User: Fold this.
Amino acid sequence: MTVARISAALLVLLLLAGCGVEPWVRPYERDRLADPIMSMDRDPVSSSYINHVHEAREGARGASGSAGGGCGCN
Amino acid sequence: MTAYRYLLVLLFTGIIGLAAPAATAGVLPDDRADTLYHYYDGGGVKIDGPSILVRKSIKDRVSVYGNYYVDRISSASIDVVTSGASAYTEERDEYSVGVDFLNGDTLMSMGFTSSSERDYKAQSLNIGIAQEIFGGMTTVTMGYGRGADDVYRNGPDGQPDGIFADEADRRNYRLGLSQVVTRNMLLGINYEAITDEGFLNNPYRQVRYADGGSATGYAFEAEVYPRTRSSNAVALRTRYYLPYRAAVQAGYRFFADSWGIDAHNVDVGYTHPLGPAWVFDLSYRFYTQSAADFYSDLFPYQGAQNFLARDKELSTFDSHTIRFGVSYDLIADGWGFFDKATVNLHYDHILYDYSDFRDLRAVDSGGAPLYATGTEPMYSYASDVLQLYFSVWF
Assistant:
């Protein structure tokens, strides 16, 4: 559970730090960031499929942004 | 039962969260439905099938989704051919359901996935929380997942042989941060630790060892993997809005596990809209990994070490992927109940190049190997991956 503890501590620290920071990009300045072409995951159905294609053929796994499901990699 | 305890805690947290007054508004995922057809062809393996994903929000506080996914597999891969087995067909069906609760700047989510093929059943439960901070500049995410797999082995009739059965227990811990850097730039960092325990190899795969008594100079025995594996992966991802309406993206991931595999992948991409309806994507991904400590293409003799693998996924190799995507919005101004509808085509071409996995298929007309044992050419292959999907927003 060490990872979970470190994660919890990090979250608390970030939340505390948030009390003293002014957002330097104001909400009205985020029009470009809100454009669909700036989405990190524009089409989840497609990205989860292509992640599965790679993971089934590679030794590496994880941190791809999707939660992952069964194996199906035989 | 730990997964179910976590589920109860999350349900409780979700109920408390819904009862609390909302602060500033976060955002639920879009209401949309996607119908995708996927096709993979490479290395003697063909896989195709549909994936249908529907997501709908309820009263701006809750969003539910369901996904049905199928892999129809027809395999005559190099592993099947060199082991002397016949080509086989298989189908994997996967169902996922999930729910997201939004309360102010906090999004809590949980999902359940069940995957089934004749010789492999997998179930997994995932929970997560995303919290916006710094006035929406930063989003911190955390997640936990638990999976339970049942592994069987099919006999010659394609059904489980009733002799072999084993299990694997999987857990993952996820931590992420996404950051608005400037009015044109987003940055994401993700970390994921995964631990597995149980039967982690493939009941069909074999390793090769030198055998002077054999006509080919080698023979096969069953592979043996450790029953535990833990891995760490950290990924960075950024997107940048160009001075004109287009975006570039770049990503990097480092991976290391307790089996001795180190992997890196980098990717770069460009997204270019054309008019109100078209969006074009072009990207490139490079992947490289080192072999597992217990991997060898050719062991010196039978039972040479405790753990044995000749699975090409655990070998030293590189891959290159080029992707092209196009999306066309059919109703950019909405149409009745629908806000938007797109038809999308994605094509990926992947080249795999192995450094210590040899191709044993080169034989003369009499079936004798063309190369001396251990000097066969290295294996490589190319794959074509196609996705055609239709999406509607409502």
Observations:
- Chain B touches chain A through 99 residues (CB under 8 Å).
